[in-house]
Design a protein that fits this description.
globular; Rossmann fold; six-stranded mixed β-sheet
């Protein structure tokens, strides 16, 4: 399937399962601020077709970078990383997935990052939604602290509220698969 058609289907699916709009602010964000937009990508990224679309599109978005792995803060980044790794194997250019814990494991081998990675691995930090970029920035910092080389960041949905600009202060290359404006256009807003 062509990338343009896949993206069109992904935008439609996000609008049907993951995006809500209200003319007045009624959705409470993590920051406590009220918003007119609600984005929860998990109903899309955990759906079989959504995984297929996200995995292939994210892999294609990042393929020119030739990362060794993709991942980010659990739980938002996990379905994206797994789908991207799966699609990369199908394409014949395997990219590993990794997950960054929110809390350090206190048993066994205490570590922040799960995955088959060596120090110095070139990685892309991914996230499902960027509002302020805080989760992505936290993941970038944690990955760097653990010895990974963060070559880029990518988000599935940019809420277009400054998050991508904030992320770009921590890594030069920031890529976006879908913007809020594309979702609004789809719903006729």
């Amino acid at each position: 399937m062509q990338s343009e058609q896949m993206k069109k289907e992904l935008v439609q699916m996000l609008c049907a399962k993951s995006f809500q709009y209200s003319p007045t602010p009624r959705f409470k964000l993590v920051s406590g601020r009220m918003s007119r937009f609600y984005v929860n990508c998990k109903p899309t990224t955990l759906h079989p077709k959504g995984m297929y679309l996200v995995g292939h599109l994210m892999y294609r978005l990042l393929a020119d970078l030739e990362p060794e792995a993709v991942g980010g803060l659990t739980f938002g980044a996990d379905p994206l990383a797994i789908a991207t790794a799966f699609a990369s194997q199908l394409a014949g250019h395997p990219v590993k997935a990794f997950s960054i814990r929110k809390e350090k494991k206190d048993h066994g081998i205490s570590k922040w990052i799960e995955g088959d990675l060596e120090p110095g691995a070139k990685v892309v930090v991914i996230d499902d939604v960027a509002t302020t970029g805080g989760s992505t920035i936290k993941a970038i910092r944690r990955a760097k602290e653990e010895g990974l080389e963060v070559i880029a960041a990518a988000v599935l949905v940019d809420r277009e509220e400054g998050g991508v600009d904030n992320i770009s202060r921590h890594v030069a290359d920031v890529r976006v698969l879908v913007r809020r404006s594309e979702l609004m256009k789809q719903i006729g807003g």
